[in-house]
Amino acid sequence: xxxxxxxxxxxxxxxxxxxxxxxxxxxxxxxxxxxxxxxxxxxxxxxxxxxxxxxxxxxxxxxxxxxxxxxxxxxxxxxxxxxxxxxxxxxxxxxxxxxxxxxxxxxxxxxxxxxxxxxxxxxxxxxxxxxxxxxxxxxxxxxxxxxxxxxxxxxxxxxxxxxxxxxxxxxxxxxxxxxxxxxxxxxxxxxxxxxxxxxxxxxxxxxxxxxxxxxxxxxxxxxxxxxxxxxxxxxxxxxxxxxxxxxxxxxxxxxxxxxxxxxxxxxxxxxxxxxxxxxxxxxxxxxxxxxxxxxxxxxxxxxxxxxxxxxxxxxxxxxxxxxxxxxxxxxxxxxxxxxxxxxxxxxxxxxxxxxxxxxxxxxxxxxxxxxxxxxxxxxxxxxxxxxxxxxxxxxxxxxxxxxxxxxxxxxxxxxxxxxxxxxxxxxxxxxxxxxxxxxxxxxxxxxxxxxxxxxxx
Amino acid sequence: xxxxxxxxxxxxxxxxxxxxxxxxxxxxxxxxxxxxxxxxxxxxxxxxxxxxxxxxxxxxxxxxxxxxxxxxxxxxxxxxxxxxxxxxxxxxxxxxxxxxxxxxxxxxxxxxxxxxxxxxxxxxxxxxxxxxxxxxxxxxxxxxxxxxxxxxxxxxxxxxxxxxxxxxxxxxxxxxxxxxxxxxxxxxxxxxxxxxxxxxxxxxxxxxxxxxxxxxxxxxxxxxxxxxxxxxxxxxxxxxxxxxxxxxxxxxxxxxxxxxxxxxxxxxxxxxxxxxxxxxxxxxxxxxxxxxxxxxxxxxxxxxxxxxxxxxxxxxxxxxxxxxxxxxxxxxxxxxxxxxxxxxxxxxxxxxxxxxxxxxxxxxxxxxxxxxxxxxxxxxxxxxxxxxxxxxxxxxxxxxxxxxxxxxxxxxxxxxxxxxxxxxxxxxxxxxxxxxxxxxxxxxxxxxxxxxxxxxx
Lengths: 457, 457
Known about the structure:
The structure is a homodimer of 457-residue chains.
Chain A lengths: L11 H9 L6 E5 L4 H17 L2 E8 L6 H14 L4 E5 L2 H8 L3 H19 L4 E3 L4 H13 L4 H4 L5 E2 L2 E2 L7 H10 L16 H16 L3 H30 E2 L5 E4 H6 L2 H16 L7 H12 L4 E6 L2 E6 L2 E5 L10 E4 L3 E4 L5 E7 L9 E5 L7 E4 L6 E2 L8 E2 H7 L4 H6 L2 E4 L2 E5 L3 E2 L12 E6 L1
Parallel strand pairs in A: 1-2, 1-4, 2-3, 4-6
Antiparallel strand pairs in A: 5-6, 7-8, 8-11, 9-10, 10-11, 12-16, 13-14, 14-22, 15-22, 16-19, 17-18, 19-20, 20-21
């Protein structure tokens, strides 16, 4: 975004803010810890707010983990009062939260901050939340993710603009921010936890990254450039995979189904990214999804088993013949049923369909939805029940028994459909795999006595 | 590749060799430094050669940089004799080569080895050259490239199979190789230069990577996995960019021309990769090409100048109106010319075309390739010359002068074509921008005396 006329000379830091300003934002929420980065960001924003025609609102969360944290909160409140920026301060017992959510204190603090800021953004009707992350933070994030075994997407690290979050200083170095703060005589507090070597980020900051800078003095700007280029490629992949998921999607009542042949025809790189996108769509995110999970899905896809399923962290993936089926959770298996069928009347099946029976003198003819039986041949009361392991029947027109399991398999009837499929039985004899195949038993003949007519509605 | 029957139990290391064996290879050249990695590879290959139905040939290059290097050569020669593997040993004064080629000793050694192996591979008719790089080398290569500011493609690091090179141990750890060597009682020599901290690779091996392993014990396997996934994506990109370059290519006599609008329509990630592929095609490789060069080409492409050019390392890129033109070197600019034109006869132009003149009594009519002039109006001898800065003429049908430069620009005549375009002049007056536009001077009228007819053939 360019702005027509200025009455002051802008520093590169201020220029970064202007260049990345979210077009049309009228209200900004600024996260202020009280450290030099966020104080500098807040100050630069106050200088630019008239030019940008934007109102500021500051936010500070007291983590209650350091002794001086209450003092930091007072510092931020006073500074905002002095700079005429409305400010909200809240407290959160992050250590307790960490225990409660089974997270590291770092991660719990991060979650608490994000939740606080997102809630406050709604309250003050903010168009964006400004964070003071800078280039050094970006390099640390990249190295942290590399160390933790992140994939390519994770290495893209932080973005200047991502949903409501805005990081205008992401291209500025720590030195640049410090120089700006000193030049403008800004006050700030030092966060002592930045020196605590128990945090991995601090080990990186104070040990590993300085060693890398000794080897290559341009290391930080090069990694920052790399993250930008990875981000551009991630955007490209995102376009591709969204298109693929849309193109490959099959009709599906719950979850997402993708065509197997179409998946297998994709380049492996595009395929694995498309599978990730499917997971993202059914899970909401990709947390705890690792390369090994995607390899398992690949194996499911290309394996010889035509029906199989995987329970993965936060989702369930199944192969069902020519489809790969993604759901947040495994589908609930329908309960078995076993119901008496009157010789004349209606029976509602568990899936909502209805079987209607009537006793007649004449044949009317069978179809996929209608069968007729010789009433005289039915020695026992009729029942309608669900499939049981070991079920066999004599398909009409065939000699001998066939396992129902084989019949289901031959007809590509999926596991879930097998369990809801009603079977019309007389004692141990399956008369009709309802709607699918009649058995050769109790066939009614013209003029051979009463006929039981069973109709699926 | 799978093999039907074995008479021995294979170790995972040997299995890696079998699994990645280049299908159909009959003759292998094995690079043997004498260190544990290459001795292990050679030994495992001798064990598998019958199963693989492949002949082995060893190769050792004595770098002459270490005191014990001659002894290493003897060691390798003796070992190969003992194992019945034919072996070629050569010497190369790598230190001198480094000075001569202005390279580091490491890089000169690498080049010397590759040249030696490639030459020997031709001599022994080898189908592949086996190198003993393993997972630890791969992680070091990744980290080295990251430290040196490599882009995404470079981070793909080494491949198991790449052209004639085969690295069957790339998935095996250093510990695995050492254990195999010890189990089989193999002898080897220690390369003292592996301990020299002046080599960056050794700093990584002995300092940085151990620190990273302390933070994350799975660091090495995770980085190895990351390089594999990056390789799969690089293969995808390669497919995409080759297709793009083919689709976007314009007819071009020398070098490569891509359509500008089509390039601008691509996603930025695909565009920058397509530009890199164009560079690769005209240069043969991408050495010394950095992100900044691609940014310069992007600027050339999207800038307001319709003609401009860049001299980049090992190549030349120009915008020429709606095309981007890639060449290994800048095109040679044609020499200026200034030739007398007889009133009747032929003149061969520098570009090979011919101007034919004749004096006639009658008009015959003009065309794009023929003009006619009133001989009486031609006060001075005619000449044909190339464009000079400041040239102006009166285009026929217009009032007043026009700068020839503007005329060229209006007609999108490219810089190189401007310099070969012949101008028919009489003194200071341009009569004809040959083949492009006649001037309004010396127009011949019917029945107004002798006519000079000039024809471009």
